[in-house]
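We modelled the chain as a single entity of 537 amino acids. Its sequence is:
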Amino acid sequence: MGSNQTNLPEDSDALKALLRQLLQDCATERQRADTQENLRQALELKLQQLQHELELLKKRYYGPRTDRLRSLQELGQMLLQFAEELLQKPMNVEDVPTESTQQEPERELRWVKKRKGRRNLAAFENLPIQTVLHELSPEERACDHCGQQRREIGADTSWQLEYIPAYFQRLQHIRKKYACGHCESEGQGAQIAVAEKPESPVAKGMAGPGLLAYIVTSKYSDYLPLYRLENVFERIGCEISRATLSVWCGDIADLIEPLYELMAARIRQSHVICTDDTVMPMLQPGMGQVKQARMWIYLGDENQPYNVFHFTESRKRDGPLVFLRDYHETLVADAYGGYDGVVASNTIRRGGCNAHARRKFVDAERVAREIAKEAVELYRLLYQVEKQASKLNAATRLALRQKHSAPRMNEWKHRLAALKQTLLPKSPMAEAVNYSLNHWEELTLFLEDGAVPIDNNSSEREMKRQVLNRKNSLFVGNARGGRTAAILSSLTATCRRHEIDPQLYLTQLLVNLPAWPISHLQDWLPDQWKLRQASMP
């Protein structure tokens, strides 16, 4: 250091030049340090994003479907391991309390769920009874002691549940013809009259209403693909190709399409509509691949209790624009931008899905665990209020929400605004915070209208059933096949909503609908049919 000081130039201009050089070198080093720090932050953010994507993929394939924090699961596993280790350790005799040191524990009242145990088959009055009588033969009635015949003194009764496999039945329709002999003898013609038979649901088809109802129920309520149904029928003893089954489904959809359109029109009269969509692959002939078509669900409110599916060949905004034409009330959906056009053009109020908002915090737990715990606790309290208000009317439900949920949501909004200033802009937790803040008006609409649900889970549950159908059937063959799936799924989903047996409903529908006047079509809406069935003796 001393030699450097002795080598300094004596000239002031040279010293100034050296100082400028040193300052320039310092600025260069500072700039390089800032660049390295920015690179480090970018790499750290990239690492967080990759870890976040990895966690999402692991949860999708191996994890639970519920929005539950992993930290709580890890805590439960730690407690379980601690208990196992504690049991393996030897017990110290001095640690065991004696009778004199033991205190009477305080009695605590608690609810214990009683197990159902074995069900009483005698109480199943909806099932038919076949009595099987077991008697002793005359030889077995002979007394072993004296040889006299034993007399009957009673009987032991037990129940057994049996299943009778389904079977096919051929119905031979014989239409008697009648002629007038008098008119024929007078040269006026025979005046022939033929007895009428019920009109078939499928024109010139051999399938009866019960068989057609069973096919639709199996395909669109039990999600059994047609090739499996073909195997089931072959095992029973009647071979029907899947191509024929598919044609029958299309014919049924054509028959009940007016009823489907009536349900859709009724839904557009709802105060609140819940909607969602999912991928429905559609074959593209000659291209060796499938097209990513879409299946949409629209759920009516309590006054219009119908579930209607709508098939489109893409996810463009044309789908909601076509279905929600002339609708001006409230639409509950996720944050998909395709709804923006119909919301703006029809002046629709849009509600958001708080389940989506909560899920984003849960997915970002690895990045900021404490924030995720805070968010999950908030939504736990909100859903407690929703559970209490589930059976209330809209006005009472709104008052309960205003009293308990609104203050918590106001505090949460200020908390999110503060968190936004402390998080990396592109981190997973920042994305969760920004999602809630950017859609705050939609997420809090349930605090302004008691009829608006807190989330969109009802339509998502219907989409999960469509996903199950897609997983089993893989794709639809063409646009008409997608339309058929939408129509028939709408009937079976609405039956499920009203706890109706779709097999029974569809059988009666297909028996009566071909000759039913279009002006009284509303009589065959599932909810109206259920009321009519309940009023029957």
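As a brief sanity check on the tokenised model: Confidence is low (pLDDT under 50) at residues 101-106. The two ends are 110 Å apart (CA to CA).
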